[in-house]
Amino acid sequence: MEILIDTPQIQERLMTMAMEIDQFYSGAPYTVVPLLNGAMFFAVDLMRHLRGDFLVDSLAVSSYAGEHSTGEIRLRGDLKMPIKDQNLLVVDGVLDTGLTLTTVRKWLLERGARSVRSAVLVSKQVPRHPAAVGFVPDWVGFSLPNYFIVGCGMDADERYRALPYIARINDSDDDTN
After folding, report:
1. Domains delineated in the chain
2. Could you point out which of 11, 21, 108, 156 has its C-alpha 20 to 30 Å from the C-alpha of 173?
3. CA distance 116 to 108
4. What is the mean pLDDT of residues 120-129?
């Protein structure tokens, strides 16, 4: 495993992102919506730095099987709070093809959200899915090549989520014994 972004770098960037988000909402109420399971650690760390008037809900979404996207977005639940006329900040750990965030954003707007913004910890440098061409998240922590990464909520078959840094999985890390 190769550490790409260490814990102090992540925390420093999250403080800056939180200040930018606070400035954007400028006291207006909004709801932070982490996409589970991958965004849970990132979302908690980010929210600890936010000072604005926000609520928290979550949405369980999946598109991966092992290390590969299935190309299908599955919503595994619903939000607990009403979203009609609400400002939402969708938080995700990693943006690669953009299909998940594009699908979730469209779904939330169709359900009546006033606005849907997005924050991602890592944006991978990969071609976007045809349905997500042109999609750009509002806040990005870091940009990385198309590595398979873990840590800060991102996983390899549910392993490594709790790492406080972002690491690249190497072939030798595939040993699960």
Report:
1. 7-144 (3.40.50.2020)
2. 11
3. 7
4. 92
